[in-house]
Specification:
The protein is of the alpha/beta class and 251 residues long. The protein has helices at residues 10-13, 21-34, 47-52, 62-85, 98-102, 104-119, 135-139, 143-152, 189-192, 207-218, 233-241, and strands spanning 2-8, 14-15, 18-19, 38-44, 91-96, 123-128, 157-162, 167-168, 180-181, 183-184, 223-228, 248-250. The chain has an eight-stranded mixed β-sheet, with helices on both faces. The chain has a two-stranded antiparallel sheet with strand order 2-3. It has a two-stranded antiparallel sheet with strand order 8-9. Helix 2 (21-34) packs across helix 4 and helix 8 packs parallel to helix 10 (207-218). The two termini are 19 Å apart. The structure holds adenosine-5'-diphosphate. Adenosine-5'-diphosphate binds next to helix 1 and strand 8.
Protein backbone atom coordinates (compact mmCIF):
# COMPACT_ATOMS: atom_id res chain seq x y z
CA UNK A 1 0.00 0.00 0.00
CA UNK A 2 1.36 3.45 -0.89
CA UNK A 3 2.24 5.64 2.05
CA UNK A 4 1.35 9.36 2.02
CA UNK A 5 1.79 12.25 4.42
CA UNK A 6 -0.91 14.92 4.60
CA UNK A 7 0.06 18.25 6.17
CA UNK A 8 -2.53 20.80 7.19
CA UNK A 9 -1.67 24.35 8.28
CA UNK A 10 -3.08 26.62 10.94
CA UNK A 11 -4.97 28.78 8.42
CA UNK A 12 -7.03 25.82 7.34
CA UNK A 13 -7.68 24.49 10.84
CA UNK A 14 -8.64 27.77 12.49
CA UNK A 15 -10.77 30.81 12.02
CA UNK A 16 -10.20 33.98 14.05
CA UNK A 17 -8.03 32.35 16.72
CA UNK A 18 -10.32 29.35 17.16
CA UNK A 19 -10.29 25.86 15.73
CA UNK A 20 -12.83 25.38 12.97
CA UNK A 21 -14.44 22.03 13.80
CA UNK A 22 -16.41 21.79 10.58
CA UNK A 23 -13.23 21.96 8.49
CA UNK A 24 -11.58 19.40 10.76
CA UNK A 25 -14.51 17.06 10.23
CA UNK A 26 -14.26 17.47 6.43
CA UNK A 27 -10.54 16.80 6.64
CA UNK A 28 -11.02 13.68 8.77
CA UNK A 29 -13.69 12.40 6.40
CA UNK A 30 -11.20 12.74 3.51
CA UNK A 31 -8.39 11.10 5.52
CA UNK A 32 -10.58 8.12 6.39
CA UNK A 33 -11.50 7.69 2.71
CA UNK A 34 -7.81 7.91 1.78
CA UNK A 35 -6.94 5.31 4.43
CA UNK A 36 -8.84 2.71 2.39
CA UNK A 37 -6.20 2.81 -0.36
CA UNK A 38 -3.17 4.38 1.36
CA UNK A 39 -1.22 4.33 4.58
CA UNK A 40 -1.85 7.86 5.85
CA UNK A 41 0.22 9.99 8.24
CA UNK A 42 -1.11 13.41 9.24
CA UNK A 43 1.10 16.38 10.16
CA UNK A 44 -1.10 18.93 11.86
CA UNK A 45 -0.50 22.45 13.12
CA UNK A 46 -3.22 24.15 15.13
CA UNK A 47 -2.05 23.71 18.74
CA UNK A 48 -1.76 27.46 19.32
CA UNK A 49 -5.22 28.12 17.89
CA UNK A 50 -6.61 25.32 20.06
CA UNK A 51 -4.93 26.61 23.23
CA UNK A 52 -5.68 30.28 22.81
CA UNK A 53 -9.33 29.99 23.86
CA UNK A 54 -8.09 28.62 27.21
CA UNK A 55 -4.87 30.58 27.74
CA UNK A 56 -5.06 34.08 26.26
CA UNK A 57 -1.46 35.25 26.49
CA UNK A 58 0.31 37.74 24.26
CA UNK A 59 1.18 35.69 21.18
CA UNK A 60 3.97 38.04 20.16
CA UNK A 61 6.21 36.44 22.78
CA UNK A 62 7.67 33.10 21.79
CA UNK A 63 7.52 31.46 25.22
CA UNK A 64 3.85 32.44 25.48
CA UNK A 65 3.17 30.74 22.14
CA UNK A 66 5.00 27.66 23.42
CA UNK A 67 2.83 27.61 26.56
CA UNK A 68 -0.37 28.13 24.54
CA UNK A 69 0.67 25.27 22.25
CA UNK A 70 1.23 23.03 25.28
CA UNK A 71 -2.33 23.78 26.44
CA UNK A 72 -3.75 23.38 22.94
CA UNK A 73 -2.07 20.18 21.76
CA UNK A 74 -4.24 17.81 23.87
CA UNK A 75 -7.33 19.84 22.90
CA UNK A 76 -6.43 19.44 19.24
CA UNK A 77 -5.91 15.70 19.66
CA UNK A 78 -9.24 15.37 21.49
CA UNK A 79 -11.04 17.04 18.58
CA UNK A 80 -9.31 14.82 16.01
CA UNK A 81 -10.20 11.72 18.00
CA UNK A 82 -13.80 12.83 18.43
CA UNK A 83 -14.13 13.21 14.65
CA UNK A 84 -12.21 9.98 13.90
CA UNK A 85 -14.49 8.07 16.27
CA UNK A 86 -17.46 8.85 13.99
CA UNK A 87 -15.74 6.65 11.38
CA UNK A 88 -14.58 3.96 13.82
CA UNK A 89 -10.96 5.19 13.73
CA UNK A 90 -8.42 6.48 16.28
CA UNK A 91 -5.49 8.84 16.11
CA UNK A 92 -2.12 8.68 17.88
CA UNK A 93 0.02 11.65 18.84
CA UNK A 94 3.70 11.95 17.96
CA UNK A 95 5.56 15.14 18.83
CA UNK A 96 8.82 15.47 16.90
CA UNK A 97 11.54 18.01 16.29
CA UNK A 98 13.82 18.41 13.28
CA UNK A 99 16.69 17.13 15.47
CA UNK A 100 14.97 13.75 15.79
CA UNK A 101 15.71 13.18 12.10
CA UNK A 102 19.44 13.87 12.64
CA UNK A 103 19.66 10.96 15.04
CA UNK A 104 19.53 7.62 13.21
CA UNK A 105 18.49 5.88 16.42
CA UNK A 106 15.59 8.24 17.22
CA UNK A 107 14.49 8.28 13.61
CA UNK A 108 14.52 4.47 13.49
CA UNK A 109 12.45 4.18 16.69
CA UNK A 110 9.94 6.77 15.46
CA UNK A 111 9.58 4.94 12.13
CA UNK A 112 8.99 1.63 13.94
CA UNK A 113 6.26 3.31 15.98
CA UNK A 114 4.67 4.75 12.82
CA UNK A 115 4.85 1.37 11.04
CA UNK A 116 3.15 -0.35 13.98
CA UNK A 117 0.42 2.28 14.20
CA UNK A 118 -0.25 2.04 10.45
CA UNK A 119 -0.30 -1.78 10.57
CA UNK A 120 -3.06 -1.45 13.15
CA UNK A 121 -5.20 1.05 11.25
CA UNK A 122 -4.39 4.00 13.52
CA UNK A 123 -3.85 7.50 12.09
CA UNK A 124 -0.49 8.88 13.32
CA UNK A 125 -0.89 12.62 13.97
CA UNK A 126 2.42 14.45 14.11
CA UNK A 127 3.18 17.96 15.28
CA UNK A 128 6.33 19.76 16.21
CA UNK A 129 7.22 19.43 19.87
CA UNK A 130 6.65 23.12 20.55
CA UNK A 131 7.95 23.08 24.12
CA UNK A 132 11.49 22.30 22.96
CA UNK A 133 11.53 23.22 19.26
CA UNK A 134 10.56 26.61 17.94
CA UNK A 135 10.88 26.33 14.18
CA UNK A 136 7.15 26.03 13.56
CA UNK A 137 6.28 28.75 16.05
CA UNK A 138 8.96 31.13 14.78
CA UNK A 139 8.67 30.50 11.04
CA UNK A 140 5.00 29.57 11.22
CA UNK A 141 5.14 26.33 9.33
CA UNK A 142 5.32 22.57 9.56
CA UNK A 143 6.24 22.39 5.88
CA UNK A 144 9.87 21.47 6.59
CA UNK A 145 8.90 18.97 9.28
CA UNK A 146 6.37 17.31 6.98
CA UNK A 147 8.93 16.91 4.18
CA UNK A 148 11.27 15.13 6.63
CA UNK A 149 8.38 13.00 7.90
CA UNK A 150 7.53 12.01 4.31
CA UNK A 151 11.10 11.09 3.40
CA UNK A 152 12.34 9.42 6.58
CA UNK A 153 9.13 7.52 7.27
CA UNK A 154 9.03 6.05 3.78
CA UNK A 155 6.16 7.91 2.09
CA UNK A 156 5.99 8.36 -1.68
CA UNK A 157 4.18 11.65 -1.51
CA UNK A 158 3.53 14.70 0.65
CA UNK A 159 0.20 16.48 0.31
CA UNK A 160 0.12 20.07 1.59
CA UNK A 161 -3.38 21.35 2.30
CA UNK A 162 -3.00 25.10 2.34
CA UNK A 163 -4.94 28.35 2.23
CA UNK A 164 -3.84 28.50 -1.40
CA UNK A 165 -5.06 26.00 -3.99
CA UNK A 166 -1.72 25.57 -5.79
CA UNK A 167 1.58 27.12 -6.83
CA UNK A 168 1.18 30.11 -9.15
CA UNK A 169 3.57 31.96 -11.43
CA UNK A 170 3.18 34.88 -9.01
CA UNK A 171 1.36 35.58 -5.73
CA UNK A 172 -2.35 35.22 -6.63
CA UNK A 173 -3.37 37.40 -3.69
CA UNK A 174 -1.46 40.30 -5.21
CA UNK A 175 -1.81 39.66 -8.94
CA UNK A 176 -5.18 39.03 -10.55
CA UNK A 177 -3.51 37.60 -13.67
CA UNK A 178 -1.53 34.91 -11.80
CA UNK A 179 -1.92 31.46 -13.29
CA UNK A 180 -1.51 28.12 -11.54
CA UNK A 181 1.31 25.78 -12.45
CA UNK A 182 -0.22 22.33 -12.59
CA UNK A 183 2.97 20.27 -12.80
CA UNK A 184 6.41 21.33 -11.62
CA UNK A 185 9.45 19.14 -12.30
CA UNK A 186 12.26 21.37 -11.11
CA UNK A 187 12.57 24.33 -8.79
CA UNK A 188 14.96 27.06 -9.77
CA UNK A 189 17.28 28.14 -6.91
CA UNK A 190 16.04 31.74 -7.38
CA UNK A 191 12.53 30.59 -6.43
CA UNK A 192 13.90 29.49 -3.04
CA UNK A 193 15.57 32.85 -2.46
CA UNK A 194 12.42 34.94 -2.80
CA UNK A 195 11.96 35.63 0.88
CA UNK A 196 15.14 37.68 0.91
CA UNK A 197 14.12 40.01 -1.91
CA UNK A 198 11.28 42.05 -0.51
CA UNK A 199 10.16 43.79 -3.71
CA UNK A 200 9.96 40.64 -5.77
CA UNK A 201 6.37 39.89 -6.77
CA UNK A 202 6.96 36.19 -7.27
CA UNK A 203 6.69 33.67 -4.40
CA UNK A 204 6.59 35.59 -1.17
CA UNK A 205 5.06 34.69 2.18
CA UNK A 206 4.51 31.10 3.13
CA UNK A 207 5.03 29.69 -0.33
CA UNK A 208 8.84 29.60 -0.01
CA UNK A 209 8.78 27.09 2.84
CA UNK A 210 6.53 24.92 0.66
CA UNK A 211 8.94 25.19 -2.27
CA UNK A 212 11.80 24.21 0.03
CA UNK A 213 9.84 21.15 1.10
CA UNK A 214 9.15 20.31 -2.56
CA UNK A 215 12.81 20.80 -3.45
CA UNK A 216 13.92 18.48 -0.64
CA UNK A 217 11.52 15.78 -1.87
CA UNK A 218 12.18 16.19 -5.61
CA UNK A 219 15.89 15.71 -4.96
CA UNK A 220 15.01 12.40 -3.33
CA UNK A 221 12.63 11.24 -6.08
CA UNK A 222 9.50 11.83 -4.03
CA UNK A 223 6.52 13.95 -5.05
CA UNK A 224 4.47 16.66 -3.44
CA UNK A 225 0.98 17.96 -4.14
CA UNK A 226 -0.35 21.35 -3.00
CA UNK A 227 -4.10 21.86 -2.93
CA UNK A 228 -6.69 23.86 -1.04
CA UNK A 229 -7.48 22.76 2.51
CA UNK A 230 -10.68 24.84 2.52
CA UNK A 231 -12.25 23.12 -0.44
CA UNK A 232 -11.09 19.51 -0.65
CA UNK A 233 -12.53 18.86 -4.14
CA UNK A 234 -9.14 18.94 -5.92
CA UNK A 235 -7.28 16.76 -3.44
CA UNK A 236 -10.15 14.27 -3.41
CA UNK A 237 -10.20 14.09 -7.23
CA UNK A 238 -6.47 13.56 -7.38
CA UNK A 239 -5.99 11.14 -4.52
CA UNK A 240 -9.27 9.22 -4.56
CA UNK A 241 -10.12 9.22 -8.29
CA UNK A 242 -6.71 9.75 -9.89
CA UNK A 243 -7.94 12.82 -11.79
CA UNK A 244 -5.73 15.90 -11.67
CA UNK A 245 -8.24 18.77 -11.96
CA UNK A 246 -6.64 21.43 -9.76
CA UNK A 247 -3.70 21.72 -7.38
CA UNK A 248 0.02 21.63 -8.19
CA UNK A 249 1.95 18.39 -8.51
CA UNK A 250 5.70 18.52 -7.94
CA UNK A 251 7.13 15.38 -9.49
P1 LIG B 1 -0.64 27.69 4.87
O1 LIG B 1 -2.09 27.74 4.59
O2 LIG B 1 -0.08 26.34 4.55
O3 LIG B 1 -0.25 28.18 6.22
P2 LIG B 1 0.73 30.08 3.85
O4 LIG B 1 -0.31 31.12 4.08
O5 LIG B 1 1.89 30.01 4.76
O6 LIG B 1 0.04 28.64 3.74
O7 LIG B 1 1.31 30.24 2.35
C1 LIG B 1 0.46 30.35 1.24
C2 LIG B 1 0.42 31.80 0.77
O8 LIG B 1 1.58 32.10 0.00
C3 LIG B 1 -0.72 32.09 -0.17
O9 LIG B 1 -1.89 32.46 0.50
C4 LIG B 1 -0.20 33.23 -1.07
O10 LIG B 1 -0.66 34.50 -0.68
C5 LIG B 1 1.29 33.22 -0.84
N1 LIG B 1 2.02 33.12 -2.11
C6 LIG B 1 3.07 33.89 -2.46
N2 LIG B 1 3.53 33.58 -3.68
C7 LIG B 1 2.78 32.56 -4.14
C8 LIG B 1 2.78 31.77 -5.35
N3 LIG B 1 3.69 31.97 -6.32
N4 LIG B 1 1.86 30.77 -5.47
C9 LIG B 1 0.98 30.54 -4.48
N5 LIG B 1 0.92 31.24 -3.32
C10 LIG B 1 1.80 32.25 -3.13
Amino acid sequence: MRRVVVKVGTHVLSDQNRLCEERILNLVEFLVALMKSHEVILVSSGAVAAGYSILKLDKKMLHNRQAIAAVGQPQLMAIYNKKLEKFGKSGAQLLLTADDFDSRKRCFHAKCTIDTLLDNGILPIINENDATATEELVFGDNDQLSSRVAYYFGADMLILLSDIDGYYDKDPHKHADASMRKIVNTIDPTELEMEKSTNFAFATGGIVTKLKAADFLLERNKSMFIASGFDLTDVKSYMLEGIHKGGTLFT
